[in-house]
Amino acid sequence: MKQLENQTALITGASRGLGRATALRLAKAGAHIIAHYSNSTAGAEAVAEEIRAGGGRVDLVAADLSAPDGAHQVARAIKELGVSKIDILAANAGTSGLSSIEEQTVENFDYQFAVNVRAPFFLVQQLLPFMHTGGRIVLWSSNVVSTAMNGASVYTATKGAIAVLTRNLAKELGPRGIRVNAVAPGAIDTDMAQIVLGNEEGRNMVKSMQALDRIGKPEDIADAVLFLVTDQSRWLDGQSLDLSGGFNL
What we know:
Number of helices: 8
Number of strands: 7
Largest sheet: 7 strands, parallel
Shape: globular
CATH architecture: 3-Layer(aba) Sandwich
Radius of gyration: 17 Å
Strand content: 5-15%
Structural class: alpha/beta
Mean pLDDT: 94
């Protein structure tokens, strides 16, 4: 029997990058995947096709998580699918951007907090009626919370908020038998990271700051998420797992 057989996992931002890799990995482990996406219909359909080709089960859900009712959109869509139980939430969907304090705008500030903090918080809230004892939640922080980067004040603040939220939600939901942990990736080779990894100079700079001499891959994070949602991590709760290849050791 596969590790996640007869379990349902909602993956947000599943059309590309870390969300795509996570959806594929949990599907391979036997989970029924509900793959959320925002704008990339083609990307989401490609992920679904790959899961089905491997014998997996998947449904697609579209919602704008930057909207105030984004989490409600997802919950409504899940009800419309006839799904009565969510075992796993992997709240990967996020946004980033570098901007000096002089160039920062209220609109960008609010957008990053809406997608990176408000959306996962209210997703947890809206999914509680679907999530019973034994539920597992994985939030997305970042290893940037342990360092400082020029132009990344807002992004870093959102990921710091997730690290704090992880601990508090674990405390609040623990009595219900629901575990909450976070992954804190370093520089991973995705579209979002191309602002740093899009040239040889940037890639070499990142590798020089890590103990492991390579750039992280989406699969590195997906395998860690699998660990966090299986019984092997049953005594791990309220933690942010640094997945940076030994950044700044």
